[in-house]
């Protein structure tokens, strides 16, 4: 069999989230928040590829830092110290919430979440971690057990069961039958306490959740909810882990999403934006207490490419770039993005909800007559009009991401997007919704 025959006429590389019925575009070039495919078609990148190219696609300072590190020494064993790692760890300690001081580096967000859970279980001598339904924490076996998204978890568990995680409901109106934020926070907090007590507090090592949901819908918690979560963790001696793989490094208008809730976690997991995705890097930032436990007892787990020095050099340069007005740009222009999306909501009866924070927003679709999703991939096999909106927007020159479940669109531009780019992209979204749902 020839190589061409083996690929059935297509490239023989296999992309992730592979769908045999779909052929993704091939991105060949990028500059700022714009990318081009192999045919020269131009797109505004309003999904930041995978919610990670926060600085856009052409930051010279990050690229130069990577080149300089590669020329100095391209790789150092993850079992040894590296000046590049130490520099980045020191910078992370300065920007993280005050109780967090030490960093254990990893490669991907999935692995960072697994490391955080392993640390929590060892520190607390307890097996269980609580995570939310409709959450996403990664696609490896360990992170898949933590994930509440049924599609991901079913794929992971098809041939090998995972364990050690229990689920609770997210603080969203449909889960608790109320649109009142204060009542929602109370009911969701009471529910979480019920789950803690039902599981047995002594069996629970940690609660792991995103401060603002990522691909599961960009929904923020109602005011007061995270205060209650922190109180419950203190009362029952449970560690609070903030999954900041998407929300970290300015995406929500602060260095970390949890800082928009004014709550201090015991650990933060990060990836994606730490290097603006210019090189793979992830990690866990922990309190002195957790760090002391590791220093005293050891931690006999590692990864070959954890804290790769070229990636750490990219991370240090990216943090400098974020400090130079990028995070302020998100805070200043959040209102523009919010207003534009609220206008989309007002323009279309098929849009049932718009919510988010900073440069991370979800647009949800439902039948206005019934309130049910036009297409719920968990129960429906028919065509998904929301996917058609994403395809229509792509044909009109803007890339958006799909949410989990697929009755929503995630709007997540690079953090350097200006007002004109924000308005152009959301106008395209508005027109694409009209084209699909209203035939315009």
Q: Any low-confidence stretches, pLDDT <50, length ≥5?
A: 1-6
Separation of the first and last Cα atoms: 48 Å
CATH architecture of the largest domain: 3-Layer(aba) Sandwich
Order of neighbouring strands in the sheet with most strands: 4-10-9-8-7-5-6
Q: Beta-strand percentage? A: 15-25%
What's the total count of β strands? 15
In DSSP terms, counting alpha (H) and pi (I) runs of 4 or more, how many helices?
Answer: 14
Biggest β-sheet strands, sense, barrel: 7 strands, mixed
Overall morphology: globular
**CATH class category of the largest domain:** Alpha Beta
Average pLDDT metric = 93
What is the count of structural domains?
A: 2
Could you estimate the helical fraction of the residues in percent? Answer: 40-55%
What is the rounded Rg? 22 Å
Q: In CATH terms, what is the fold-level topology of the largest domain?
A: Aspartate Aminotransferase, domain 2
Give me the secondary-structure category: alpha/beta
The CATH homologous superfamily of the largest domain is called: Type I PLP-dependent aspartate aminotransferase-like (Major domain)
Order of helices and strands: HEEEHHHEHEHHEHHEHEEEHHEEHEEEH
């Amino acid at each position: 069999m020839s190589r061409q025959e083996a690929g059935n006429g297509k490239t023989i590389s296999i992309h992730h989230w592979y769908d045999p019925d779909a052929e993704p575009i091939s991105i060949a070039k990028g500059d700022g928040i714009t990318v081009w495919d192999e045919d020269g078609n131009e797109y505004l990148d309003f999904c930041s590829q995978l919610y990670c190219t926060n600085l856009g696609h052409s930051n010279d300072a990050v690229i130069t830092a990577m080149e300089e590190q590669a020329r100095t020494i391209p790789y150092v064993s993850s079992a040894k110290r590296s000046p590049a790692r130490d520099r980045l760890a020191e910078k992370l300690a300065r920007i993280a919430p005050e109780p967090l001081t030490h960093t254990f580096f990893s490669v991907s967000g999935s692995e960072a979440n697994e490391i955080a859970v392993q640390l929590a279980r060892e520190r607390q001598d307890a097996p269980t971690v609580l995570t939310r339904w409709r959450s996403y924490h990664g696609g490896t076996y360990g992170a898949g057990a933590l994930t509440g998204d049924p599609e991901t978890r079913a794929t992971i568990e098809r041939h090998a069961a995972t364990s050690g995680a229990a689920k609770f409901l997210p603080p969203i109106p449909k889960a608790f039958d109320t649109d009142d934020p204060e009542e929602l926070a109370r009911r969701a907090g009471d529910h979480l306490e019920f789950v803690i007590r039902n599981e047995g507090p002594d069996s629970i090592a940690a609660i792991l959740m995103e401060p603002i949901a990522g691909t599961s819908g960009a929904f923020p918690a109602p005011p007061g909810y995270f205060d209650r979560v922190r109180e419950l963790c203190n009362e029952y001696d449970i560690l609070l882990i903030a999954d900041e793989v998407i929300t970290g490094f300015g995406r929500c208008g602060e260095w970390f999403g949890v800082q928009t809730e004014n709550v201090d976690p015991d650990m933060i997991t990060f990836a994606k934006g730490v290097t603006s995705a210019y090189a793979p890097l992830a990690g866990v930032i922990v309190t002195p207490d957790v760090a002391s436990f590791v220093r005293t007892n050891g931690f006999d787990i590692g990864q070959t490419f954890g804290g790769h020095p070229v990636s750490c050099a990219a991370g240090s340069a990216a943090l400098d770039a974020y400090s130079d007005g990028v995070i302020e740009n998100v805070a200043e222009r959040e209102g523009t993005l919010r207003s534009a999306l609220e206008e989309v909501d007002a323009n279309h009866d098929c849009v049932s909800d718009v919510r988010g924070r900073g440069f991370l927003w979800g647009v949800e679709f439902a039948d206005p007559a019934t309130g049910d999703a036009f297409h719920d991939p968990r129960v429906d096999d028919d065509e998904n009009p929301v996917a058609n909106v994403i395809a229509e927007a792509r044909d009109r020159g803007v890339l958006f991401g799909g949410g989990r479940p697929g009755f929503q669109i995630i709007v997540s531009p690079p953090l350097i997007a200006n007002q004109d780019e924000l308005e152009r992209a959301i106008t395209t979204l508005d027109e694409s919704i009209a084209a699909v749902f209203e035939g315009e």
